[in-house]
Design a protein that fits this description.
This protein is mainly alpha-helical. The protein is built from 3 helices and 2 strands, in the order H-H-E-E-H. It has helices at residues 15-31, 36-63, 88-95; strands at residues 65-70, 76-80. It has a two-stranded antiparallel ribbon with strand order 1-2. A hairpin with a 5-residue loop joins strand 1 (65-70) and strand 2. Helix 1 packs antiparallel against helix 2.
């Protein structure tokens, strides 16, 4: 078995590609067909991919827009989390005032 070692490529991959490779790594590890050395290499790759996926999800979460109210025409006012680092709870409290 020759596990791929694209750990350095993981930061350049999309979330879907990284997650797909992570699933493949898990399947390979669970199969029990790898040598100890290959399993360790796969495990290290999996940890790297997990960190990459987590970071990508964190970045995406920061870009999510939340509804902050309505304008005079009834249109929703959207506010980016990037622009304001307050928590959703803090924003909810100020909207109710």
């Amino acid at each position: 078995m020759n596990p791929k070692n694209p750990a350095s490529e993981s930061k350049e991959r999309s979330f879907e590609e990284s997650f797909g490779r992570l699933e493949e790594v898990v399947r390979l590890l669970e199969s029990g067909q790898s040598t100890l050395s290959e399993s360790l290499q796969l495990y290290e790759e999996g940890v790297s991919l997990l960190k990459t996926c987590h970071g990508q999800l964190q970045n995406a979460r920061r870009k999510v827009e939340i509804l902050s109210g309505f304008d005079e025409n009834g249109n929703p006012i959207m506010e980016s989390l990037e622009e304001d680092e307050r928590s959703i709870e803090e924003k909810s409290e100020t909207r109710g005032r």
